[in-house]
Amino acid sequence: MKRNITIRVVAAVVIIVLATGTWLTSGKVDVGWLRFFSAAVLTATLILALWDLWLWRTKLIQRIPGVPRCVRGTWQGTLTSFWIDPTTGASPPPKTVYLVIHQTATLVTIKLFTDESRSTSTLAAVSAVDSGWTLAYLYLNRPDMHAEHRSRMHHGSTVLDVSGSPATRLSGRYWTDRDSKGQLEFTKRHHKLAADYPEAAAYFA
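^ that's the sequence the OP posted. Answer follows.
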C-alpha cells in the first residue's frame, strides 16, 4: 500500500513538472499523454515489486555497490552464553540454534529458534559498515512453557558481521535486558525458510 502511494505521488510530481515545462515553453499545456498515467503507474509498481522481492538478490545485482547483502534463508549455528549459573559457577554448554531471515530489498524480519524458546525481531536491518556488512536487530524472546520457570520473556539486541559474497557466515554477539550476553556463529545455510525449530533442524539433518 505505501509503495503504491509513493509511486502515485512521484508520478503526479513528474506530470506537474512536465505540464509546467510545456506551458512555460509553448504557452499551452498538452495533456493528451495523461491517458498513459494508469499504465505507467502499473508498470512502475510491477517493476518495483519484482526488484523488492527477487531481482535485488540475483548474483549480478548483488555485485552493485549499495545493494543490501542477501542473507535470506535458514541458518544453523551455535549460541554460546556468557551467563554464569550461580549454583554451579559455570556457563551453560553451547547449543545449536537456527536463524530464519525473511528479507526483501527494503525489509528484514528475523526469528531465532532454540530448543526451548523463540525470538522475533521488532526492528532489523542489513547495513554497510566500513568495508563490510552487518545484520543488526532488536528482538523479543518468548520461552516455551516448560522453560518459563528458569527463563523469563525478555528483550535483547544482536549484531552479526556478514562474511562472504554471497554470504557464507554470520558471527557476532547478543545482549539482553536480563544482563546476560553471548556469542552467535552461523556457518550453514538453507534456502528454505523454516517455521519452527523441528523444521529447521530437519533441513540440516
